[in-house]
Amino acid sequence: MWAELSTCLDLDAGVIVGAPVVRRHLSDLAGCFADRAAYAALRAGEDPLLYTVSGVEAADGAGDLHYGLGVLFPGRVGGEYFMTKGHLHARRDAAEVYIGLRGEGCMLLEDEATGESRMEPLGQGRVVYVPGHAAHRTINTGRVPLVYIGVYPADAGHDYGAIAAKNFRMVVVERDGKPAMVARDGLNIQQ
Ligand code: F6R
Ligand code: MN
Fold this sequence. Notes:
Elements: E1 9-10, E2 15-16, E3 21-25, H1 36-43, E4 49-56, E5 65-72, E6 76-77, E7 80-81, E8 96-102, E9 105-111, E10 117-121, E11 127-130, E12 134-140, E13 146-153, H2 161-166, E14 170-175, E15 178-183
Antiparallel strand pairs: 1-2, 3-4, 4-5, 5-13, 6-7, 8-11, 8-13, 9-10, 9-12, 14-15
């Protein structure tokens, strides 16, 4: 017997109707942003909501898929745009497809073995294929919420610790009014 096969997106509310919602605040991203002073200054305020993920995990068999609707709010910590924590999949070879529905942004990808990094556009009408073994983080480079769907194998799992331990090598910051990917090491700030 099949489980429920279709759901309804409420893009204005930023949810998949009836699905549980995870909320991530600035305090959940301690250590993620390069500019520690800017992070501390913003943390001293009201601990803003950075993003929500509404997830459907209806089927868990071999070959099944899960999916989630993400809403990432606009803002910056120093020069760095609001972003997700980022993770590798616990099953490292599990890939994922991200589909941009609203707003402007990008994904930062980093190959776990080589460190090769890419900034791929993810906004309304853009699709990003996240290969296996790639740490991935979503970044809102616009002025309105970035809304996207991620579809991934049910057994992918999430490993937040491995990338958090060393952090992504690259950061996406605003330079001359545009997003630019630059080396974390090369930033001229106290980290
Ligand atoms: C699932 C996936 C997305 C993220 C979401 C939030 O594998 O990649 O649904 O979970 O973009 O990002 P994280 O999980 O890094 O907080
Ligand atoms: Mn993922």
